[in-house]
Each structure stands twice: as structure tokens, then as C-alpha cells.
User: Which sequence fits this backbone?
């Protein structure tokens, strides 16, 4: 993963400590992986962030912050991933997870009209919540596990690529030194 890019995007613990409004977060700094960018902390952040983003619950950011603290995941990345489900993406995500839930449970898809009223919410929620919850849990689990292992794989590939790049640069420098030493050795000068 591009560690330098991620470090530029997210605030450091020192920057957060300097802000008076965030001093109540002091206990968070006792766990170093909450702000460090390493393979395990980032992979855990993707695991819990993506899973929580698909939960049809309010206060997802609070849930993910608690989970990040508990499993020692990178907190800023976890919180950022919760925004996969935002006001624009929630309707298609939850409709798709509802359809998946009805498919898994073998329930007929109900035709419903959305009304913005408490009465509609209370009457329709009783028929919609089980397939929505099942579809959301399955989607969240599958995508979070895939992203967890995907981060591990991408991180490994990046490390291997960087390592190979350094090895080839080192070999090229050694070749150039050997060629320079050969050309500068006594008796190897060509006079014209």
C-alpha cells in the first residue's frame, strides 16, 4: 500500500493531541496501531470498516470506532470506510442487500412504495427488516473478508515490487561501478 500517501491524508496523533476539542480522545493514544499505518492495522481497518458500512444501523461511526479500538485497527481508515454507505449510496446498497436477503431466505420480494412517515416506517419495517438484515450481514461479511485478504495481498505485492526494484537498482549500480573500474584501470586507456 502507498504508506506515504496514507500518512499525508490522515492526521498524526500529535496533530490530534494539539486540538483542544479532541483531548478527550487521549486514551486512544495508548494503542499505537490506532494511528499507525502497517499491514495488520490497515487490513483490520478494512475488515471492520467495510463490514460496519453495510450494517443497516444508525451510529455506524461509533460502532466502528469501538471495534477499531477493540481489535487495534487503524482508526482514521476505519472511520473513512464507513462512508461507503452515505446518503447517496444507502438506497441502492440497502435495496440490493434486501434483494439478496429475500433470495437467501426464499421470500417473495414485496412491492412497496416508500413514504416518509413514521406510520409507513413502523408497518413496513416489520416485513423488510429480516431480509435486509440477512442480506446486509452476508454482504458485509463477504466484502469485509475479501477486502481484508485483498489488503494483505496488495501490501505483499507492493513490498515485493519495491524489493525487486531496489535489488535491480543495486545490481545496476554494481555493474556501472565494475564498468567504471574496468575503464579506469591502468592499461585500459585507448589512445587515438
Assistant:
Amino acid at each position: 500500500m502507498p504508506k506515504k500517501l496514507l500518512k499525508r491524508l490522515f492526521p498524526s496523533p500529535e496533530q490530534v493531541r494539539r486540538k483542544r476539542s479532541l483531548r478527550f480522545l487521549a486514551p486512544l493514544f495508548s494503542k499505537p496501531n490506532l494511528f499507525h499505518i502497517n499491514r495488520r492495522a490497515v487490513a483490520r481497518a478494512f475488515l471492520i470498516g467495510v463490514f460496519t458500512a453495510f450494517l443497516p444501523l444508525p451510529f455506524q461511526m461509533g460502532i466502528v470506532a469501538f471495534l477499531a479500538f477493540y481489535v487495534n485497527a487503524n482508526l482514521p481508515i476505519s472511520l473513512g470506510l464507513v462512508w461507503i454507505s452515505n446518503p447517496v449510496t444507502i438506497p441502492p446498497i440497502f435495496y440490493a442487500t434486501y434483494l439478496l436477503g429475500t433470495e437467501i431466505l426464499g421470500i417473495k420480494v414485496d412491492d412497496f412504495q416508500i413514504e416518509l412517515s413514521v406510520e409507513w416506517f413502523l408497518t413496513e419495517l416489520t416485513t423488510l427488516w429480516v431480509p435486509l438484515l440477512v442480506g446486509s450481514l452476508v454482504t458485509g461479511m463477504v466484502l469485509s473478508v475479501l477486502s481484508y485478504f485483498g489488503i494483505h495481498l496488495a501490501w505483499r505485492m507492493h513490498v515485493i515490487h519495491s524489493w525487486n526494484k531496489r535489488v535491480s537498482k543495486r545490481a545496476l549500480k554494481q555493474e556501472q561501478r565494475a564498468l567504471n573500474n574496468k575503464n579506469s584501470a591502468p592499461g585500459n586507456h585507448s589512445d587515438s
Notes: The mean pLDDT is 82. Residues 3-177 form one domain. Helices lie at 3-9, 13-18, 39-53, 60-71, 75-82, 90-105, 118-184.
